Amino acid sequence: MNNTVARAIEEIRASFPGSLVTTFDDGQGGAWFFVDGVDPGPVYATRNIWVGADIGPQYPYADVYPVFVSGELQRADGRQLGEATSMNVGFHGRNSVQISRRSNHREPGLETAAMKIQKVLAWLASR
Q1: Model-level pTM?
Q2: Tell me, which fold does domain 3-125 have in CATH?
Q3: Which of 18, 31, 76, 96 has the fewest C-beta atoms lying within 10 Å of its C-beta?
């Protein structure tokens, strides 16, 4: 992975100090990662999930999109997850929920990969 992507991975590790962050080099300058041990908030019955995404070699000029979370994610009230989610999507060997939250008009270098993951988790918690 290139140096910019490696720095992004380190920022993700720093953003989730109590979680296990596993990374994989994609062989083209980018990487993908899993953060295991994330709490999506009290809206969800599943309180310990993983979150992951691909970071392309064009980062920071390319958005970290889409973001994936554990396929077991369920709301505590029994309702469907709703818009911007796709169930039973494979992500590097894991069953997942795909979260489609594109960051339009983002400023490269200002919104980091770690910030994007935090924004997606905040969006999930607010639903």
Answers
A1: 0.93
A2: Ubiquitin Conjugating Enzyme (3.10.110)
A3: 18
